[in-house]
Write a structure and sequence with these properties.
Layout (H helix, E strand, L loop, with lengths): L1 E5 L7 H13 L5 E5 L5 H13 L5 H19 L5 H25 L4 H25 L4 E3 L2 H4 L1 E2 L10 H13 L4 E5 L2 E4 L4 E3 L4 H13 L3 E6 L20 E3 H9 L10 H6 L4 E5 L8 E4 L11 E14 L8 H12 L4 E6 L5 E7 L3 H11 L1 H5 L7 E12 L9 H11 L6 E4 L5 E7 L3 H12 L5 E8 L3 H21 L1 E9 L4 E3 L9 H6 L7 H11 L4 E5 L4 H4 L2 H5 L4 E3 L10 H14 L3 E2 L10 H10 L4 E7 L2 H9 L6 H10 L8 H4 L2 H13 L10 E2 L13 H10 L1 H13 L2 E10 L2 E10 L11 E8 L7 E6 L3 H16 L2
Parallel strand pairs: 1-2, 1-8, 2-5, 3-5, 4-6, 8-10, 9-11, 18-19, 18-21, 21-22, 22-23, 25-27
Antiparallel strand pairs: 6-7, 10-11, 12-14, 12-15, 13-14, 15-17, 16-17, 19-20, 24-26, 24-28, 26-27, 28-29
Helix pairs in contact: 2-3, 2-4, 2-5, 3-4, 3-5, 4-5, 7-8, 11-12, 14-15, 16-29, 23-24, 24-27
The structure holds NADPH dihydro-nicotinamide-adenine-dinucleotide phosphate (NDP) and the ligand N[C@@H](CC=O)C(=O)O.
The site of NADPH dihydro-nicotinamide-adenine-dinucleotide phosphate has 32 residues, from helix 16, helix 19 and helix 29.
Length: 814
């Protein structure tokens, strides 16, 4: 024997009812007891209609007509014409009865809990009767089971308590001689005087569970409009998926905290008789659904699901007069209970100086009044402080039987939330360790659920949300590389990398779901949002996405000045822009400290040597206890390119322009040719070694005539270089005469750093440095005889974008 329950959506339309018929037909080899809800939406309409009637509002009649039409139309659409009349008259009799009750409510202007039960239960009575006739007309011999009479309760109207001994006997008696298919109304019951009661909203699940337990069936199925209990709320977490197997206790925890697939009291009768409950999707019967049973059948997943509840308020009662006084908590809970306020979570620290309770946000005023009254005396003596109330909060809970077997789950939970800037207001965990609950601000709920889902479900892809400013040579290449790699990263690295914000100096564009990278240029350039730094940052904050990373691909000091604020919002920063790390030592250090304090990441590997692993290698040396004694390096890709290609007969300015076209120079080439770019790089390297230096501490000999440096535009600069052609020709000629090559070399030795153009002879390792390559030699305590050498392309969009990409992936993998 099998008990099935179909909810409001499953029986909501004639088409859906035909699907239900197919499911019942497929199971007809077995005796089936089928509990149905009211047609979808009808219970709410009945409630609204009776409220209007009680308020003396005649418009209740219009609403009633709508309810009536819904049922009569369903009969006409479902049943063949020849079998309609009997069902129509039966339905009309029930509706007339209901209309009389509504009229009575209207006339006396009152809706008692008892009348409400009478009205609301009619939804199930009507639906079940129509369904019985429909199934019979389809050739399935079907009885109607009067659960309203079978299930006996006390007289707590609207949420009655079941008397199991009489109920179980009634059920057994009825089903001894019933047909092989019986349709029963859910939700309805009656007291010992046969007055209608109901089992509480969602009570149809409970009806089915009572029948399943009384009949000790093998199978109990709840058919609904989702494919089982989900790992999280799918409206917030797009990758939430059905949980295949779950224990009774886990299901209770999840359904108490927001996973509304099953009405919580349903589980107890099934648990008492050890009957597995299957949650199935009426519209996707092929899906496995969720099986709730005594244990989660060897599942290895220790966090089974996340649940959440919105609109939570925290009440914090504190005071010196509370410490060591046993009755305080009793009085607090008594006051709340008398005010009919349900306490959702409780936390109290061992100091006993305060008790914090979480309640439904709608109960704040009632709680405030009740607590003020209860503690009037203590408040007047300042033994209790005025109640602190914090609203607009949400609960998030991790649920899983096996959490108790794993150390560090709460640590993982708090770290994941903390790294994403989510502050935890309160925590509760019982000794069963089956549920770890935190209270957070409601505006962080979606982000928190996603962060936790990513953190605890192994199959999950980690989503990284990128905000890119600067889409020129380097930024544009980075976008191309990301577009090309997205699929690979998703499949092989479980990283879902999306660009959600883009800007150049004029426009900005956002798409929370990820910008379509096949047309990012059109989207940005034809967009209407003007780029403003404050608005860009505000949008990042408003979107409040998990794992947000700000990528600065500009050479702008203004954008570099935003990093500290961004890092302090728990948003990581990745940048090839050297301005921040080469600004004052104080600012450089503050950025590192902010990143550390807020657990955001600040990565700038491409500041030195573009894509070459210079900074990470240096960091590895330092962290492992090595000491850098000397650095010798060629750190400018553009200058190396220029001096490698500047030969007699070639104009210096043309080579400089070519270096720009190849993407090696800075947006302002003066920065390269003046040596400032190399000064910044050596400064960054020695700072990473722990030296507290400023840019002004680096000595530099410029080979550029002073008037070149006074130009404002690149064109003026090129014109001045052309005017000084002879100067540059003489430099190269002199080097050639000395059998040497020109290189701009950065040196750090004996605590001093310098940058200058040098003639490098054949015996030096820098002599053969080709193209735009960089080279760095680190002499350290461990690399004492031979330096550690890093060499390779040190400029260019492709290698720089790759280095930025690698920094982003370090964040994704952290
Ligand atoms: N080229 C290389 O080999 C390497 C470069 N780098 C660094 O990479 C960075 C980018 O260089 P590159 O791509 O060549 O430069 P580009 O000039 O090609 O691109 C700069 C981009 O930044 C934008 N931008 C400038 N100022 C702002 C602002 N205030 N707000 C928003 N966007 C702005 C520009 O927009 P718009 O077009 O509207 O002005 C443009 O999209 C530089 O910091 C450079 O030092 C680092 C290592 C190697
Ligand atoms: N302009 C720079 C590019 C990298 O920082 C260079 O020439 O090396």
């Amino acid at each position: 024997m099998k008990v099935l329950k179909f909810g409001g959506t499953s029986v909501g339309t004639p088409d859906n009812l035909r699907v239900v018929k197919d499911i019942l037909s497929a199971g007809k080899e077995e005796k089936q007891v089928c509990v149905v809800s009211a047609f979808g939406g009808v219970t709410n309409l009945l409630h609204e209609c009776s409220d209007l009637a009680a308020a003396g509002d005649e418009s209740y009649q219009g609403l009633f007509a709508k309810i009536e039409a819904r049922h009569l139309d369903t009969v006409k659409e479902l049943l063949p014409v020849k079998s309609q009349s009997g069902t129509l008259s039966k339905t009309k009799i029930l509706l007339n009865d209901l209309e009389d009750i509504m009229k009575g409510i209207f006339l006396i202007g009152e809706l008692s809990p008892r009348s409400l039960d009478r009205v609301l239960g009619m939804g199930e009575i009507l639906s079940s009767n129509i369904i019985v006739d429909f199934l019979n007309s389809e050739g399935l011999t079907t009885d109607w089971g009067n659960t309203g009479a079978m299930i006996k309760t006390d007289s707590t109207f609207n949420n009655a308590i079941v008397d199991f001994s009489s109920t179980n006997q009634n059920i057994k008696d009825f089903f001894k001689s019933s047909a092989d298919l019986v349709i029963c109304p859910g939700f309805v019951s009656s007291n010992q005087d046969n007055v209608n009661t109901t089992l509480g909203r969602g009570g149809s699940d409970y009806t089915a569970a009572i029948l399943a337990a009384a009949l000790e069936v093998d199978t109990f199925e709840i058919w609904t409009d989702v494919s089982g209990m989900m790992t999280s709320d799918p409206r917030a977490v797009s990758s939430a998926h059905p949980i295949e197997k779950i224990s009774y206790q886990e299901a209770m925890e999840l359904s108490h905290f927001g996973a509304k697939v099953i009405y919580p009291p349903t589980i107890q009768p099934a648990l008492d008789k050890n009957i597995p409950i299957k949650i199935k999707n009426t519209f996707r019967p092929q899906d496995a659904g969720t099986t709730i049973s005594a244990d989660s059948n060897g599942s290895k997943q220790f966090v089974k699901g996340l649940s959440s509840v919105k609109n939570i308020a925290l009440l914090n009662l504190s005071g010196s007069g509370m410490i060591g006084i046993p009755k305080f908590s009793f009085r607090l809970f008594k006051a709340l209970s008398e005010a009919k306020v349900n306490v959702i979570i409780i936390t109290q620290a061992s100091s006993e100086h305060s008790i914090c309770v979480g309640i439904d946000g709608n109960d704040v005023e009632a709680s405030r009044a009740a607590i003020a009254e209860e503690f009037q005396f203590e408040l007047s003596l300042n033994k209790v402080n005025p109640l602190e109330v914090e609203e607009h909060l949400a609960i998030v809970a991790l649920v899983g039987d096996k959490m108790r077997d794993h150390v560090g789950i709460s640590g993982q939970m708090f770290a994941a939330l903390g790294e994403n800037g989510v502050n935890i207001k309160a925590i509760a965990q019982g000794s069963s360790e089956r549920n770890i609950t935190v209270v957070i601000q409601e505006r962080h709920l979606k982000k928190s659920l996603n962060v936790l889902h990513e953190s605890f479900f192994l199959s999950e892809k980690k989503r990284i949300n990128l905000f890119l400013v600067g889409i020129g040579n380097v930024g544009g290449t980075l976008i191309q590389q990301i577009a090309k790699q997205q699929e690979y990263l998703s499949e092989n690295e479980h990283v879902d990398l999306r660009i959600v914000g883009l800007a150049n100096s004029k426009k900005m564009y956002f798409d929370e779901e990820g910008i379509d990278l096949s047309k990012w240029k059109d989207l940005l350039l034809n967009g209407t949002l003007k780029m403003e730094n404050a608005a860009f940052i505000q949008s990042i904050q408003n979107m409040n996405l998990r794992n947000s990373v700000f990528v600065d691909n500009t050479a702008s000091a203004e954008i570099a000045g935003l990093y500290n604020g961004i890092l302090s919002k728990n948003i990581s920063v990745v940048t090839p822009n050297k301005i921040a790390c080469a600004s004052s030592y104080e600012n450089y250090q503050e950025l590192k400290n902010t990143a550390r304090e807020y657990k955001s990441k600040f990565y700038y590997e491409t500041n030195v040597g573009a894509g070459l692993p210079v900074i990470t290698t240096l960091n590895d040396l330092i962290k492992s206890g090595d000491r850098v004694k000397k650095i010798e390096a060629v750190l400018s890709g553009s200058l190396n390119f220029i001096f490698n290609n500047f030969k007699p007969g070639v104009k210096f300015v043309d080579i400089v322009k070519q270096a720009g076209e190849e993407g090696y120079t800075e947006p302002d080439p003066k920065i390269d040719l003046s040596g400032v770019d190399v000064m910044r790089k050596i400064l960054i390297l020695i700072r990473e070694c722990g030296v507290e230096a400023e840019l002004s501490d680096i000595t530099a000999d410029s080979f550029i005539p002073a008037d070149c440096m006074k130009t404002k535009t690149n064109e003026e600069f090129y014109a001045k270089l052309e005017a000084h052609e002879e100067h540059f020709q003489s430099l190269v000629k002199q080097a050639e005469d000395n059998n040497a090559r020109l290189k701009v070399v950065a040196t750090y030795d004996d605590g001093k750093a310098s940058v200058g153009l040098k003639e490098i002879t054949k015996s030096h390792p820098f002599y053969i440095l080709e193209g735009s390559d960089n080279i760095v030699l680190f002499n350290t305590n461990r690399y004492a005889d031979q330096p550690l050498v890093i060499k390779g392309a040190g400029a260019g969009a492709a290698v720089t974008a790759m280095g930025i990409f690698a920094d982003i992936m370090r964040i994704a993998n952290s």
